[in-house]
Amino acid sequence: MPATHLSCTRCGNELPLEGIGACPRCFGPLEPVYDMDELRRTLTREHIEAGPPSLWRYAPLLPVHVPDEPRLAPGLTPLVPATRLASHLGVGELYLKLDTANPTHSFKDRVVAVACAKAQELGLETIACSSTGNLANAVAARAAVEGLDAVVFCPYDLEREKLVATAAYGARIYAVRGSYDDCSRLTVELSFELPWGFVNVGLRSYYAEGSKTVAYEVAEQLGWEQPDVVICPIASGSLHSKVGRGFRDFRELGLVSGPAPRLIGGQAAGCSPVATAFAADRPVKPVRPDTIARSLAIGSPADGDAAIAATRESGGSIHTVPEHEVGENMALLAETAGVFGETAAGVTLGALREAVRRGEVGSSDRVVLLVTGDGLKTPGPVADRFVPIDIPADADALLTEL
Ligand SMILES: Cc1ncc(COP(=O)(O)O)c(C=O)c1O
Ligand SMILES: [Zn+2]
To answer: How close is the Cα of 183 to the center of ligand 2, in Å?
Structure first.
């Protein structure tokens, strides 16, 4: 395995590949380090193309051993052209990355697959998380298929569709009277007390690496080319920064060439600590979320500053999307592309629309928009569009009504 150790991104402290959530010296975030010289010698396009049809085809770039029997493996989700939406927006070429095709219908299956593989290497029998809903689904399903226990901590008032699915997989659900940020604090405290694999606490450096595979797949699916622009929703900021890292890995390994894609991020107006800090050119300050985009309702984003750094480095931007546009955008995506994305996708499309309005993205760009979660879990914002026409079961009645 080319991953050699964990390194602190703040002070450079080096640690073994174990379940350590933060640098013991400075509490900074830890990232796996890979032997890039070895990878440059051994990892070819052909090697990847011959791999399994899942994220495990990128195993040498992940900090875990491939499970002996990969079950319910996420990844290699469709990348589809959205030509009607592209011409509606005035974008040259637009592709949708449909991470709704993952086992629990969101990109969180990727991060959990990697974190759970590490939990199993460490001999843990329970996986756990704090979640805005999609991660809970992914942890619960992964535990079910692996024969582990799952425990999830969610805000008590999340969309019912998400929690019912989590319950169906057999997880123990704690509905915490508080926000996601309260759930997160609770799991950090509990991680010192319980022998559980908290995927986004003690296993976070493994978990986060799973998001790089979105970038790997996009490049491979575009015929080993990078897009000009990638549009990403931002909650903790992990996905956004790791997508940037994924393209960088491929450039460093000579698997693709050309400049880094511009990263464009989106947050809903009711929870936009990262977009606000980007606009004001200052570090992220926590906020109290009040947004319809519950998946993205993280007021104290762990990787917010990293997301801003990745955006600036790429020449991209981060936009705030008005709350009332989230449902409108979900409907626009559905009507023009036949894709029903969740509220996060409404935010992502809002960020693209704003980037087009500002002239940051246009007719010469090849753009990839990440659809990270499924609208069936968050139908609320478009529910008012459901106005069926009531008719008797009679053809004549229908023909007169037309
Ligand atoms: C559907 C969806 N998209 C995007 C995100 C953002 O992920 P991150 O916390 O890595 O920024 C989340 C996080 O929960 C999510 O559920
Ligand atoms: Zn450190």
So the answer is: 25
Chosen domain end from 178, 207, 236: 207
To test ligand 1's pocket by mutation, which of 209, 372, 378 has the most ligand atoms within 8 angstroms of CB? 372
Along the chain (402 residues), what's the average pLDDT of each consecutive run of 10 residues?
94 95 93 97 97 98 94 97 98 98 98 98 98 97 98 94 94 96 97 97 97 98 98 98 98 98 98 98 98 97 97 98 98 98 98 98 97 96 94 90 80
- In a domain, residue 43? The reply is yes
Per the structure, the count of domains in the chain is 2
Strands 197-198 and 126-130, sheet pairing:
parallel
Domain endpoint, select from 207, 226, 245: 207
Residue 293 to residue 396: CA distance in whole angstroms: 44
Residues 6+ apart with CB under 8 A from 350: 266, 268, 319, 321, 322, 325, 326, 329
CATH number, domain with residue 288:
3.40.50.1100
CA–centroid distance, 22 to ligand 2, in Å, is 8
Distance 205 CA to ligand 2 centre (A): 13
Distances, alpha carbon 331 to alpha carbons 8, 238, 294, 357, in Å: 42, 27, 17, 19
122 & 201 share domain: yes
Q: Which domain holds residue 42?
A: 3-54+108-207
91 and 166 inside one domain: no
